[in-house]
Specification:
By secondary structure, this protein is α+β, with helices and mostly antiparallel strands. The protein has three helices and five strands. A hairpin with a 2-residue loop joins strand 3 and strand 4. The chain is elongated.
Length: about 110
């Protein structure tokens, strides 16, 4: 029935919102640090780069995008590193769901 379909849609939206609300504590099972770009290293450039992305029901990063100010030299390695992350699938009411708006900030510091 149309009413049942509407209720299902509302439940799915609520699940996605709940998953998104929990995403700030959502940590990857595995993550690799990005490579420090040689040109940035040679020029002594440091900085932070925040990447925001969704995590698929399979725990893979999808749609990574740089958010805010990020030095151009840090964009590509940050996006590439984010794509290597693997997450525990988020389970809501027994089903794996997409988690939207997960953020990770990469800190580039010369030691």
């Amino acid at each position: 029935s149309a009413e049942r379909a509407r209720q299902t849609q509302v439940q799915q939206q609520a699940q996605q919102q709940q998953a998104a609300a929990d995403s700030s504590q959502y940590q990857p099972l595995s993550k690799e640090a990005p490579d420090y770009p040689e040109r940035a290293l040679n020029k002594g450039i440091e900085g932070d780069c925040t990447v925001v992305y969704d995590v698929s029901p399979q725990g893979k990063v999808v749609n990574p995008q740089v958010q805010g100010s990020c030095h151009p030299l840090f964009m590509r390695p940050s996006l590439a590193a984010a794509e290597t992350f693997r997450y525990q699938p988020r389970i809501v009411e027994g089903r794996a769901v997409m988690v939207s708006g997960v953020k990770n900030t990469f800190h580039y510091r010369i030691k």
